[in-house]
Amino acid sequence: MPSKIQAAALLGALVSSINAHGHLSSIKVDGTTYTAYDPSFQYQNPVPEVIEWSCPECLDNGFVDPTMYNDVTKIACHKDATAGAKVATVKAGGSIDIQWTTWPDSHVGPVIDYMAKVDDATSATSKELNFFKIDEAGYENGQWAATKLIANNLTWSITVPENIAAGQYVLRHEIIALHSAGQADGAQNYPKCINLEVTGSGTENPTGETADKFYTATDPGILVNVYSGDLSSYQIPGPALFDGASSGSGSSSSTAAASSAAAPTATSSVASSPATSAPVATSSAAVENNAVSSSTLVVSATPTTATSVPTETGSSSSGEKEFTLDTFIAWLEEKAGSSSSTKVRRHPRAF
Ligand SMILES: *[C@@H]1O[C@H](CO)[C@@H](O)[C@H](O)[C@H]1NC(C)=O
Ligand SMILES: [Cu+2]
């Protein structure tokens, strides 16, 4: 049986060889489908021009964590992101469907959308984006918003508020993954920004704030253990929805994006992928689709015993973290880019 140190080294190898998270694949704006940004665009010449902001540092599909919450160049539109070269036109009251390439089931958490009015979206910088929140969804009807997104063909649907003034805006779409959020700085923010030109006769110019004002490391919706307690009282972090949000997509907290999302939810993603289970006390990992494909990793962990493993790619530090069994299994799952929606706690999956 490998020692903890050896296990950590093996897991480190997994971290560097598996791309667990997704990025946006496409953005449908009032019926027109636009290509999203792909971090590999930086290797193309010319670099494709898209409506989404660019993030060359996002090759690892990584995240922004609470240690970066007061750095607007990171938390606004992801790490050092710069404005997209194009702008998509949408009517006030129109719809936007944002599709991700993939999302790990273990990465439960809220989905939140903001907009910021700008003079010219193609030359805006993160420091000047004064965002107001247009929609939010946390844990509702026994389901996390991120889980709903996966079930809806990896798509989140937004209604542009009907009453906002015409002009250019930057839309900020964000998933916050909470699978490790029971530990300090364990939350993972995945913000994406998109350039819009809103048309119509709205008159509202909601007050916004820069993204470095949104969250703190100890907000109840950021530092939260999602493996115990009453999730129905989960508090979505960030500012309140702007006053006019309700006239757009409907915005009680049962909300907005959720109600305009097409697919029903509860069982679909479970049914679509066979659950595989592994013994609880020992997680056996045979990685199928990457560089370490023929290796088998056996890590022993027992309930309530903390196991020390490296932090994942995208984290701000390269130190080690203490994991409980639950968060450790979630961590293993995410390394594998799990697509099963099997409950993490009950069916740690072999991958
Ligand atoms: C899901 O999205 C993919 C990619 O856009 C699309 O080809 C497919 O038809 C969608 N599936 C459903 C059920 O809408
Ligand atoms: Cu992750």
Automatic annotation (TrEMBL):
Cofactor: Cu(2+)
Family matches, as Pfam families: AA9
Protein localization: Secreted
Molecular function GO terms recorded: cellulase activity; cellulose binding; metal ion binding; monooxygenase activity
Auxiliary Activity family 9 catalytic domain location: 21-229
GO cellular component, one term: extracellular region
Region (Disordered) location: 298-321
InterPro entries: AA9, AA9_LPMO
Comp. bias (Low complexity): 298-318
GO terms (BP aspect): cellulose catabolic process
Domain statement: Has a modular structure: an endo-beta-1,4-glucanase catalytic module at the N-terminus, a linker rich in serines and threonines, and a C-terminal carbohydrate-binding module (CBM).
Stated family: Belongs to the polysaccharide monooxygenase AA9 family.
The protein, known as: AA9 family lytic polysaccharide monooxygenase
